[in-house]
Amino acid sequence: MKHPSLVVAILAFAPAAFAEEPIVPEGSALVFTSFRGDGDDGLHLAASRDGYTWTPLRDDKPIFQPKVGGGLVRDPNIVAGPDGVYHMTWTTGWTHSSVGYAHSRDLIHWSEARQVDVMTAEPRARNVWAPELFFDDKQDRFLIFWASTIPGRFPATEATGDDGYNHRTYMTATKDFQTFTPTRLLYDPGFNSIDSTIVRDGDRYAMFIKDETRTPPAKNIRVAFAPAPAGPYGPPSSPITGNYWAEGPSAIKLGGRWYVYFDRYTEGRYGLVTSTDLVRWRDESDRVHFPKDFRHGSVLLVPASILAGLESAGRE
Question: Which of 86, 153, 187, 267 is most buried, by CB atoms within 10 Å?
Fold first, then answer.
């Protein structure tokens, strides 16, 4: 399906004095997940108290090293449930049809990892990439969503991707991570797309997504809106990121401003755009500092006690 693009303004980078500082709630802290290299060694975590400078935890050693599916831990995404339990999904391999899953109460001690096969109804699916979670409080369930290529499914864009990939976003839902709803298409923006992430903005929901078009090159982040987390989502916006290749967006609202972090993967660095209305964007990439080789992860707000525990564990 094809949609007209919405107009999204990207403001030029402003001096630090012009940008508002993020407001981290008292008693809370920011934690960011990531992986290193190809994802062979497990989950890495970094922390920040201002949203701009991120420090690796545990001397940047992996805190969790599960081996399920293809054995990798790429694109780790963590979301807290209403009971305070943290749930994590990740990409287990380049050509596997499963999602890695585990849970924890402190981000230090994790359950046994499990492989959740989410594309068994689509045996021709080439991959399951960048699975993410969103807790739908209105229906008391978690959405799991990811990018897959099913050959021949979207012929109009078959030749636009890398190595014959032509992704769209699919989803399932669960209340207990034991039983799951049938997998279905979540979003087709009309182009090859990966790395979706969902946030709530008042009475609406925003999905940030990467345009994965290679021919002609796009490789940028866009945003679409829906009345419910499971859609239907409207047309994608124009790019909200600059003239560099971007992927792996992760969004959080601090005070009255949205912070969307993303992996500027061809440059080996992270970027940041901010907005008060999800329409007009300011590029603040020059203000952020991440650990070396930091790769596609997700940002989350945690109680300060969780960060204190992580920091103490790193000193043991």
Answer: 187
| DSSP, res 4 | P
Q: Please list, residue by residue across 14-51, b when 16 or more beta carbons sit within 10 angstroms of its beta carbon and e when fewer do.
A: eeeeeeeebebeeeebbbbbbbbeebeebbbbbbbeeb
- According to DSSP, the β-strands at 28-34 and 98-104 are unpaired
Q: Is 196 helix (H, G, I), strand (E, B) or coil?
A: strand
Q: Which two tokens stand for residue 52?
A: 């701009």
Distance CA 131, CA 118 (A): 10
Cis preceding linkage at 216, omega within 30: yes
3-class SS letters over 221-254: EEEEEECCCCCCCCCCECCCCCCCCCEEEEEEEE
Question: Using an 8 Å Cβ cutoff, are 285 and 16 in contact?
Answer: no
Nearest-CA neighbor of 221 among 186, 163, 263? Answer: 263
**Strand 204-211 vs strand 220-226: parallel, antiparallel, or unpaired?**
antiparallel
* Residue 143 and residue 173 in contact, taking contact as beta carbons nearer than 8 Å: yes
Q: What is the pLDDT of residues 30-50, one digit of tens each?
A: 999 999 999 999 999 999 989
CATH code of 9-315, in short, is 2.115.10.20
| DSSP SS3 for 304 | helix
Q: What is d(CA 170, CA 214) in angstroms, rounded to the nearest whole number?
A: 21
Structure tokens at 66: 């599960």
Give the residues across from 198 on adjacent strands: 207
pTM over 0.85: yes
What tens digit of pLDDT does each residue of 188-218 get?
999 999 999 999 999 999 999 999 999 889 9
Q: Residue 133: is its pLDDT beyond 80? A: yes
Q: Which residue has the tokens 């689509």?
A: 122
Q: Where are the domains of the chain?
A: 9-315
Peptide bond into 232 cis (omega under 30): yes
